[in-house]
Amino acid sequence: MVYHVQQFEESPAIIYRYAEVLLNYVEAKAELGTINQGDIDLAIKPLRDRVGMPNLAMGAIVSDPDWDFPELSPLINEVRRERQVELAAEGFRWNDIARWAGADELIVGKRPKGFLASQVEENPFPVDENGFLDPLKNAMPEGWGFQLDRDYLNSIPVSEIVLSEGNLTQNPGWE
Predict the structure, then answer these.
(1) Farthest-apart Cα atoms in the chain, separation
(2) Does 127 fall in a domain?
(3) 7, 18, 51, 145: which one has the fewest Cβ atoms less than 10 Å from its Cβ?
């Protein structure tokens, strides 16, 4: 009996979704301070048109008390929110937070919460002051253990340091 084993090959490739390219472009223009309505029409409008949302108008951005970065311009906050919405569940969030150095606003002292406790019949979890399930309250009373002076960089594996024959040292805080 002859068995044929199917062969698979992995070819490295960089894969970009067009929405990511558009959002990278408009974010860069906003951060450089060179963005104009034409850039928004080119990059954000197609994404919003696709789902029937109105376009973002530079002159019509209303201040939002819930912005993640209230010290930044309204336009940058809106572009960042656009990234968060469009790229949800696609694995970009940590890269965005790290690039923006935003962990102190978005991670430190926070923990994930559940839905409203009133939506469940039986609740085995603690409930926060706003009525949301807080299942990690006891395990993480101070929130995520993110250390600003260390955790923006990953530790370097010891095997890589050894292979470098002294040319590579451990990142700060991971010694």
Answers:
(1) 73
(2) no
(3) 7
Residue 58 in tokens: 């530079």
Alpha-carbon span 87 to 53, nearest angstrom: 16
Dihedral sign for Cα atoms in the order 82, 84, 89, 95: positive
As beta bridge partners, residue 127 has: 133
Number of separate helices (H) and strands (E) present in the chain: 7, 0
- Residue matched to tokens 């696609």: 90
Task: Give the tokens for residue 73.
Answer: 């311009």
- How many CB atoms lie under 10 A from the CB of residue 72? 16
The per-residue pLDDT for range 33-85, each reduced to its tens digit, is 999 999 999 999 999 999 999 999 999 998 898 899 999 999 999 999 999 99
The pair of three-digit structure tokens given for residue 66, joined into one six-digit string: 């819930």
Tokens of 142: 């101070």
Q: Among 24, 21, 31, which residue's Cα sits nearest to residue 76?
A: 31
- Residue 96 domain flag: yes
Q: Is 133 exposed, middle or buried (0-12, 13-18, 19+ CB in 10 A)?
A: buried
> In the 8-state DSSP scheme, what is residue 142?
T
Q: What is the domain extent for residue 70? A: 18-106
